[in-house]
Amino acid sequence: MTLSRRMAEYAVKVKYEDLPDEVVEYSKLCILDWYGSALAGKDEKPIQSILELVQEWGGNEQATLITGGKSSIGNACLVNGASSHIVELDDIHKSSIIHAGTVVIPAAAAVAEAYNLNGKDLITAVAVGYEICYRIGEAVSPSHYYYWHNTATCGTFGSAAAVAKLLKLNVEQTMYALGNAGTQAAGLWEFIEDGANTKQLHTAKAAYNGALAALLAKKDFTSASRILEGRRGFFNAMSEKYNTDKITRNLGKEFKILENSFKIHASCRHTHPAMDCVQTIMKENSLSHEQIQNISIQTYQTVLNITDNPNPETVYASKFSSQFCAALIAIKGSASLIDYNEEILQSPEVRELMKKVTVVADPYYENAYPEKWGAKVVITLNDGRTFSEATDYPKGDPEKPADREELIQKFKSMTLGKVWNAEEHVQAVLRLEKIDTAEWMSMALGEEQCKQTQ
Description:
22 helices; 53% helix; 2-methylcitrate dehydratase PrpD; 4-stranded mixed sheet; two-stranded antiparallel sheet; globular; CATH 3.30.1330.120
């Protein structure tokens, strides 16, 4: 039996009634977190560029755009997928290295709205989509991640699986959806060298391509049956090492969405372990950044590959700079959405402290990655005293969870100035299993509400 068939059989079999209560509740928190991130990002320039393009294209009014109004399913995937990724507060799964919310939920929400499906259908599809993309991501990580952005590549399978579930495709059709998702999977890390807008295109296209694959499968548009393990398939073409056991181990016996992590700081997740340590040292010892002689960060190699940037030139690039993020949290004590701005980027005290930050790979953390995303920080003061802190898990991981109330407060913080009554939006998502998706969309993403908040 091919891996695609195994996953297709799983996706077809799962029903809402099979989901444990904790999976239902966790899935709603994932949807809430996605929604807050999407609202927070909707006015950013790259998102407006995508919006202008889809408006030029036009499209049937099938699904709501986070920016206001309606357009086609495909256009909604593009706008809503991009918008939810840009402020760097979207969810993450450690061992697969995927931000599933930004690709699975935009596609699932657009299709569920267009096809008049209910909240239970959407919740089930989200849980299935997360399951599929996380398993594929685990199978190819970490080698795949050096060149390829897992959210863009593996995430495409997740959006396809979610939409296939919503469309009630059979096993054969779901295999087609996965096969054609895989042949579209792309997203290279080279954009990080320039701090370019491409990262938003990754999530936009992963949502779009997955939806496209599933919608074509509904019309019996065929695909490769061994897209993962075939000799010219995804694994062999795009990974130095892969583990097929990760695809099927405990499939149907567990729900990987429960392994999802939520961001607290508004930056690349790879910066968070060290940031947590800096924050703890500074707070517990009542230190001032003026006392610091140097900050030493010991962590895993991927942190250096992605975030070793001692001189970020834009606010967006600063979110991918371990040096900047460590300096920021040492000075401000926080690294929320409003803490990342042009003024703080150019601040002389931040720039000076950044020069005192060193980042090196350590075998302990390298060997533990990607199951653990850890770091050790040593801060040496001008008077010679040293303080150290280490963690295997940043805040927001299941091992150090952010509770429901913290995530609600995060949503309200992200949507400040974006919605009139954040509590109404929270409650709409938290009762999603009791309403139709279209009702939630009209309430949470409706045109009039968006117009009022602009």
